[in-house]
Amino acid sequence: MAEKRRMFALKSAVAVSCAVVAGVATVGVEPVRAAVESAARAISPADKAQGAKAHPDLLAEFGGKLTGPQAAYVESVGKTIALQSGLGNAREDFTVSLLNSSVNNAFAIPGGYVYVTRQLTALMNNEAELAGVLGHEVGHVAARHSAKRQQAATRNSILGALGSVLAGAVLGDSGFGRLGQQVFSQGSQLLTLKFSRTQELEADDLGITYLRRAGYDPRAMATVLESLARQNALDSQLRGSGAEVPQWASTHPDPASRVRTALTRAGAGATGLTNRDKFLAGINGLTYDDDPRQGLVEGRRFTHPDLRLSFEAPDGFYLVNGAKSVSISGQSGKAEFASAAFDGNLDRYVAGVFASLTNSNAGSGTPQLESTTVNGIPARYGLARAQTNSGTVDVVVFAYDFGGGKAYHFAAIAQAGNAGVFNGMFRSMRRITTAEAGAVKPRRLTVVTVKAGDTVQSLASRMAYRDAPVDRFLVLNGLQSDARLTPGQKVKLVTY
């Protein structure tokens, strides 16, 4: 969470994105592909203008664009696969960005803008998988799924109410707190609109087509989908939320079905380039998980070395760090930690946060505020009751004056009468020392060569995690539990 950045809703409705693990329907797509192929055209000036307008906001939303050799490598692969779509006729027609984000995501917007996060890139195991993911996103643009989704939203009067369409975080990796379909953000709410089952399958099919055209192994679409499904299952297990049904599961079939469909479309005996060693060399050294400059999540604790603060989520809740906020999610409530403009008056700050929740039905005006001190930090807080589709809820804003013109706050939501579940978190906020800040280190992806005597267990013990190191190692490398390593084989580790 960057210092004093406001959460915002993107005002452009051109964003085309999707979490590539969302499911698909098992229907034929040959007629659809033919229609898309015939409709493919050069990027229009209008699309270029729309994309250029949205591009800076998207970069800011996802932690900024990385530079350097890893970013240059990803850009080269992305432009190569995007050209296969026929949307542009030159590499210069596309802008490919490697995002400094710890969420598993990739998306594209009209105008030739293609994006993938470093976290999702690190999960892949060869260049064909990277090309497949980016090709899938370009496929959404080629099929004009964004326009179709926007038309449906307009018919339901959603866009008029929210003023924004931003998808891609349907696995709870958005960095925003949720309650049902409601998402808190500083300034407005976002409704995450997902692509339909058929649209996801169309994009998968187009991605496979682009892989073939570029000479890649088209089976890579299936293998990367499998890795992403396994990663999400592992994340759910580590968060203790295995009993929860992911949001995408309510409207999409299981990921295993999608993997099987992608493999069938590619052909079990298909061949082509994977460029595994080139890929591993190209991404070696990427930051993995949180960038300490945006704060670091360790279990239920969030620490920001630059802002010199730390807090702990309630038991049973998990944290997801975003570029501008931290979401806190659990069975009994949701919350977001963020910052807003501060003129030194904490009452006006809290009032401004409540006012920003204009679509939360939190009532008119600001509720009565109370003063307190938390670990020596002056604080103000208030509670409002609201009506939602999920019933009556309590909305709490709890803000802290850190001095020097800096303030931070939690916006929390829980069923009416249950907001006390967050009291421990509110009281856990504290300043950290210089020594504590200096001890926060980034994790990095490290490619190593297997030596004689190395095993899954011995290499996993070098992972920079205390929990589930073997499971993390296997998923990261696309290996099964009975995998046997051979000397000379290259594998990925996450180290400090």
From TrEMBL:
Keywords, sorted A to Z: Hydrolase, Metal-binding, Metalloprotease, Protease, Signal, Zinc
Domain LysM: 446-493
InterPro entries: LysM, LysM_dom_sf, Mito/Outer_Membr_Metalloprot, Peptidase_M48
Gene Ontology MF term list: metal ion binding; metalloendopeptidase activity
GO biological process: proteolysis involved in protein catabolic process
Extent of the signal sequence: 1-22
A single GO cellular-component term on record: membrane
Cofactor names: Zn(2+)
UniProt keyword Repressor present: no
Protein name: Putative Zn-dependent protease
Species annotation: Novosphingobium chloroacetimidivorans
